[in-house]
Amino acid sequence: MADEPKYKRLTRARPRSRFAIISTGNSSLWLGPDHVLCIDSSGYTENYKRFYFRDIQAFIVRKTDVYK
Question: Do 50 and 37 contact (CB within 8 A), yes or no?
Answer without folding.
Answer: yes
